[in-house]
Amino acid sequence: MSVLARRAAAEFVGTAFLVMAVVGSGVMASRLSPDDAGLQLLQNSLATGAALVALIVALQPVSASFNPVVTLVERALGVIDTRIAAGLIAGQFLGGLAGAVAANLMFGLDAVTFSTHERAGAGLWLGEGIATAGLVLIIFGTVRSGRTDRVAFAVGGYITAAYWFTSSTSFANPAVTVARTITDTFAGIAPSAAPGFIFAQLAGGAAGFVLVRVLYPTLVTSAAAAAADRKVLS
């Protein structure tokens, strides 16, 4: 198997499990706490954040973006080329759809049911833009400051928090957004609402890219970051 195929497969698997975590925990939360929306969101956010940490730790040695916006920023920064970016993004979208189907089937639902959950409006779109800009900043700020080994925990913590401080509950991912159109559950989004979310995510990703270039103009090695940490502690 080629390196690109392995990386695309890792993106497929990782995004599939991420969507299973989002959709599956949403269904479980709705069934366990049917009359408490706040508790449902808490359960959904904790499961998603924990799954992200685990998936990134496991798949980071191969490929662990699970998000087309993150992959596009990697391309813009020159980390990967266009061919690799296209392969990874394809894996992400296909993996997301597979994850949504698997989650639906696990809970005894139809494999594909288009969501009727309308999510639209300036406030939600702004929330998505902010959520995505923050995610890009967290990922690349951590990586470019030489702390790659901490990115899983930074991302998991941020997404868990962003569920709560953004009006949109922080989808922040076009592949996951598309996947959530085919599940008519707690985590779903109506197909008609998905383009607005995706546009906001792309705009937020662009804003995050600008922030990364301004705040982290150079890439710090892990060794340099460790030396800086020792200096602060001494």
List the defining traits of the structure above.
9 helices; mainly alpha; 234 residues
Which structural class is indicated by helix and strand composition? mainly alpha
Mean pLDDT: 95
In the predicted model, the low-confidence regions spanning at least 5 consecutive residues are: none
Radius of gyration: 17 Å
What is the 3D shape? globular
Give the percentage of residues in beta strands.
under 5%
Give the terminus-to-terminus CA distance.
47 Å
> Can you count the helices?
9
**Strand element count:** 0
Helix coverage percent: over 70%
Order of helices and strands: HHHHHHHHH
Characterize the largest beta sheet: strand count, sense, and whether it forms a barrel: none
Structural summary, described in words:
With 234 residues, the chain is mainly alpha-helical. It has nine helices and no strands. Helix 1 packs antiparallel against helix 2 (37-59), helix 2 runs antiparallel to helix 6 (151-165) and helix 3 packs parallel to helix 8. The longest helix is centred in the N-terminal third of the chain and has 30 residues, at 3-32. It is globular, with a radius of gyration of 17 Å. The N and C termini lie far apart (47 Å).
